[in-house]
Specification:
Blueprint: E1 16-18, E2 25-30, E3 36-40, H1 46-57
Antiparallel strand pairs: 1-2, 2-3
The protein binds zinc ion.
């Protein structure tokens, strides 16, 4: 059994391509091995807005 240059999912450093969001989550697909994974949408949570609040405080 020869598994030459096949990308193995367990061996893959996944490069996630996030597809269009549906509801509160998005599906990401690995560009390399084709594996899919669900990502919860978190773009509107406090991670970034805390940075902006911090910036606003200096004004
Ligand atoms: Zn992968």
């Amino acid at each position: 059994m020869d598994t030459n240059t096949d990308v193995n999912a367990s061996n893959c450093v996944c490069y996630w391509i996030i597809e269009e969001p549906s509801g509160s989550k998005s599906v990401g697909r690995c560009k390399k091995c084709g594996k899919t994974k669900e990502f919860f949408n978190y773009t509107d949570t406090s991670v970034w807005s805390s940075e902006y609040n911090y910036d606003n405080l200096s004004e």
